[in-house]
Amino acid sequence: LLYSTFKNNSAANGGAIGSYGSISLYGTTFEGNSATTDGGAISVTNADLTITNSVFENNSSSNYGGALHIASAEASIENTTFSNNSSATNGGAIYVTSTLTIRNASFYNNSASERGGAIYMSRGTDTYVARIQSIENCTFVGNNADYGGALALYAAEETYDGGAIANVRNCEFS
Q1: 128 near 72, Cβ under 8 Å?
Q2: What pTM does this model have?
């Protein structure tokens, strides 16, 4: 999808887009979308997701991922802004149980009622270990949650030997 706008859409999962297939977005805006379950703007499962030069603003979910819910997928986000997104549970902007790379992104005033005001990463499944390959050159300002105002990395089972893995470089948290 190139230079598109998704505004004020709603669904149970993926307020604007729900997908089990690969998605590439460039220059796309998601504003005011909502999900009664996961992924206020987008919910993607078992597929690749690439987002570049895009904006996610004022999206919300009643469960996971105010803007994005990414499950068992390979995801890359670059030069993208997330602002004023909210989740009633975890991941104000992003909820991920996948492999994720984020570069040159900004996270402003996102919120989650429980964990991960900007990003919440769960451990994934026994066959798919969740990991953030890298978060580089990003800005996190004014994000809020009960646990992990900007980032919450969570391994759901103590017996699991993987857990969430994150490499964070050259980012500002304020």
Answers
A1: yes
A2: 0.93
